[in-house]
Amino acid sequence: MCGGRGTRLDTEVEKPLFRVGGVPMVDRVVGALEDSGVKRIIAATSPNAPETKSHLDVACIETPGEGYVADLDAALADDRLSRPVLTVAADLPLLDGEIVDRVLDEHSGGSLSVLVPASLKRELGVSDDTTFEDGDREVAPTGVNVVGDGSDDAWLTRDRRVAVNVNTLADAHVAEQWL
């Protein structure tokens, strides 16, 4: 998923092309997927990120650029995809093949949401704008999911490789500390 505006990042460059440790975030995510057991990579782009679409060397699905959920729905409707589908946000510069494979191992059918404790995001010093209660715990989505047919499941991890989403310049500085 690499078609968002990235307004909170407050930079001139499109969010997926924002460099963390000298490398565009989208390249780090594509590299992690290439280093994993994922068989095919297709990027979901939008009119909000035309330079990202030109930059990528993978197949692209054009989405309307109306927000994450609308863009995800548009991408999932594309005939090139069949479920289950691993979805990954382009703002996860610490992602690597090992954690992607671990997510795939945790998936046992249906859909899987990868969550982290909201307290972990605070400990790491990254933004935690989206949190919710899951049982007795405050959790945050990571931007990594498996969308399938059937029941929904969640995997809670304390792995910083999925906990550090870069939404602000401060988040980028934290990510660079962990590279």
Describe this protein's structure.
By secondary structure, the chain is α/β, with parallel strands linked by helices. Strands 5, 6, 7, 8 and 9 form a 5-stranded mixed beta sheet that branches. 39% of the residues are buried. Helices cover 31% and strands 23% of the residues.
In short:
The protein is 31% helix and 23% strand.
Descriptive keywords:
179 residues, alpha/beta, Spore Coat Polysaccharide Biosynthesis Protein SpsA, Chain A, five-stranded mixed beta sheet, two-stranded antiparallel ribbon, 7 helices, 23% strand, globular
List the helices and strands and how they pair.
Elements: E1 19-20, E2 23-24, H1 25-34, E3 42-45, H2 50-55, E4 59-62, H3 68-76, E5 85-88, H4 97-106, E6 111-117, H5 118-124, E7 132-134, E8 137-147, E9 152-156, H6 160-163, H7 169-178
Parallel strand pairs: 3-4, 6-9
Antiparallel strand pairs: 1-2, 5-8, 6-8, 7-8
Oligomer: single chain
Number of separate helices: 7
Which architecture name does CATH use? Answer: Alpha-Beta Complex
Over the alpha carbons, how many angstroms does the gyration radius reach?
A: 15 Å
Q: In the CATH scheme, what's the topology name?
A: Spore Coat Polysaccharide Biosynthesis Protein SpsA, Chain A
The largest sheet is: 5 strands, mixed
Number of strands: 9
Class by SSE composition:
alpha/beta
Low-confidence segments: none
Query: How would the global form be characterised?
Result: globular
Roughly what fraction of the amino acids lie in strands? 15-25%
Helix content: 25-40%
CATH class: Alpha Beta
Number of domains: 1
Query: What's the N-to-C terminus distance?
Result: 22 Å
Whole-number average pLDDT?
95
CATH superfamily: Spore Coat Polysaccharide Biosynthesis Protein SpsA, Chain A
The helix/strand series, from N terminus to C terminus, equals EEHEHEHEHEHEEEHH
